[in-house]
Each structure stands twice: as structure tokens, then as C-alpha cells.
Design goal:
The complex is a heterodimer of chains A (169) and B (93).
Chain A lengths: L7 H14 L3 E3 L9 E4 L3 E6 L6 H7 L1 H10 L2 E7 L8 H11 L5 E8 L2 E7 L12 E6 L8 H19 L1
Parallel strand pairs in A: 3-4, 4-5, 6-7
Antiparallel strand pairs in A: 1-2, 2-3, 5-6
Chain B lengths: L10 H12 L2 H7 L3 H13 L5 H15 L3 H17 L6
The chains are: A alpha/beta (169), B mainly alpha (93).
Chain lengths: 169, 93
């Protein structure tokens, strides 16, 4: 089932069900300012949940008040959104997220929610976050000085396309 | 899961791009770094079949580069993107 464009309440319901199913401890939305969830599993993982990829632009800015805190704790900052039908559409928002966060020493991830899976995009040099590993497909992306460029994002989309095609078979 | 897009382009699409350009909306969006709106514009152009997958990817390359730039480099790249979008009026898909 595609979650894309279903609306944030439904995406939130889906996400919370996953957290409960896999017994992940979390602070829910409206607890912390600037971010939806704080997951705790040995490490801190700040998660902003969005219902469309296009919302990543706003999420990256909205989370600015969290980046400094995340840096203090060596935490992950994550944006989670449903896998879009047009995979190429993740390229610019992800680049923007990496640009905004490039001045902080934080671990950055983009989670693409898809069916019973999470495609977890993480920087190649960073170990993926230690939560929801049972349903995560970790996809590393190279960065140059913490930033992305057209070629790197095209490679990422190819990798995601392969993952999706293999899982759909 | 990605669908192929139509090659025919309704005449209305020409007007849409023309209006965006002539009213200066395109310029304002780019100048003020309204990446979200530019992205939405690209998505709509793609969904309406005004641009195909390859063109969408090329434009996304431009947007990826723009999001990383500031100052003079940004202005130059922004101008290029504006010209490409403007050129869509006369470009067959």
C-alpha cells in the first residue's frame, strides 16, 4: 500500500504502529519543539515525519532548533516520508536537507516508508541508526564535504530503484 | 512503479509556462530560493506530461545544484534554470 499523499495523520498512525510493534521507545509528537519524535534505542534519533517528499524542504528548516542539541548528543537527525511514486523527486529535497545540516556534526538519515519496509538512506561513513533494523534496508550514499551533487543523487535513485524492483518481484 | 509519461502536450500547457514566465512568477520563485515551489512546479509539469522522465531528471539536476549554491554562482545557475523552463514552451516532448 502506498502511503504517499494519504495525509499526515495516516502516515503517523502507520509509523506509530511500527514503533509499537518493534517495541521502540519514543517521545511522541508535541513533546519536543521542532521535531515530531525522539526515538531512544541506545542512541538518540530525532525523527520528523512527513506525508510527502516535498515537505522535506520545510522539515529541514523546522528542525534547525534540534540540530544543535543533536550535535551535543552525537544523535541522528532523520526525516521520514513515504516512498514517492517518482523516485527522482527525492533528489533535491535530500540535497537541501544535507546542505542545511552540513554545518552540524550530526548523523543524517532519510527514511522512505514503503509497505512493511523502511529504506534507510544514510551517509556511507556513518553507521545506520540502530532502530527498526528488522524492516530496514540500509542504503548508503556518498557525500562530498557533507554535501550531495546531481551525480551522487542519481546513483542513489538507481540504487533505490533496484531495491524496489527486487522487492516487488 | 514509475509511470511513463505522455508525449502529447495540450495547448494549455504552453499557456501555463508562458504565464509563469511573463508574469515574473518563475523569476521570483527562483530568486527567492523557493525550492519547494519550484519542485512542485516540476512535479506538475511532469504529471501533466509537459516534460518527460529525462527532462524531469535534467531539471532535478539543476535544482540539486541550486540548493547547494549561494551568491553569484546561485544567480548564474538560477538564470540557467529559468531559461530552460522558459524554453519548454517551444520544445517538443
Amino acid at each position: 500500500m502506498s502511503l504517499h499523499s494519504l495525509g499526515e495523520p495516516f502516515v503517523d498512525m502507520f509509523f506509530r504502529r511500527i514503533l509499537d510493534k518493534f517495541k521502540v521507545h519514543y517521545l511522541p509528537p508535541n513533546t519536543l519543539k521542532g521535531v515530531d519524535y525522539l526515538l531512544t534505542s541506545g542512541e538518540f534519533i530525532f525523527v520528523e515525519l512527513e506525508d510527502t517528499i516535498i515537505e522535506i524542504y520545510s522539515a529541514a528548516i523546522q528542525m534547525e532548533r534540534i540540530y544543535g542539541v543533536a550535535q551535543l548528543y552525537g544523535a541522528y537527525v532523520t526525516i521520514a516520508a513515504p516512498l514517492p511514486p517518482n523516485l527522482s523527486s527525492i533528489r533535491a529535497p535530500l540535497t537541501y536537507f544535507f546542505r542545511i545540516t552540513s554545518m552540524y556534526d550530526v548523523k543524517r538519515e532519510l527514511w522512505l516508508l514503503w509497505d512493511e519496509h523502511i529504506i534507510k538512506i544514510h551517509e556511507k561513513k556513518v553507521t545506520p541508526s540502530p532502530v527498526l533494523s528488522q524492516i530496514s534496508i540500509c542504503t548508503p550514499i556518498e557525500t562530498k564535504d557533507g554535501l550531495l551533487d546531481p551525480e551522487l543523487t542519481r546513483k542513489l535513485v538507481d540504487a533505490i530503484r533496484n531495491i524496489v524492483e527486487n522487492l516487488e518481484v | 512503479m514509475e509511470s511513463a509519461h505522455i508525449s502529447s502536450r495540450p495547448i494549455e500547457s504552453e499557456f501555463i509556462i508562458d504565464i509563469l514566465y511573463r508574469t515574473g512568477i518563475l523569476k521570483v520563485l527562483i530568486k527567492h530560493r523557493e525550492f519547494r515551489s519550484i519542485h512542485e512546479l516540476l512535479d506538475r509539469l511532469f504529471e501533466m506530461g509537459i516534460i518527460d522522465t529525462n527532462k524531469y531528471d535534467d531539471l532535478m539536476d539543476q535544482l540539486v545544484e541550486l540548493t547547494n549554491l549561494d551568491g553569484k554562482e546561485f544567480r548564474e545557475k538560477a538564470k540557467k534554470l529559468e531559461q530552460i523552463l522558459r524554453g519548454l514552451r517551444n520544445e517538443p516532448t
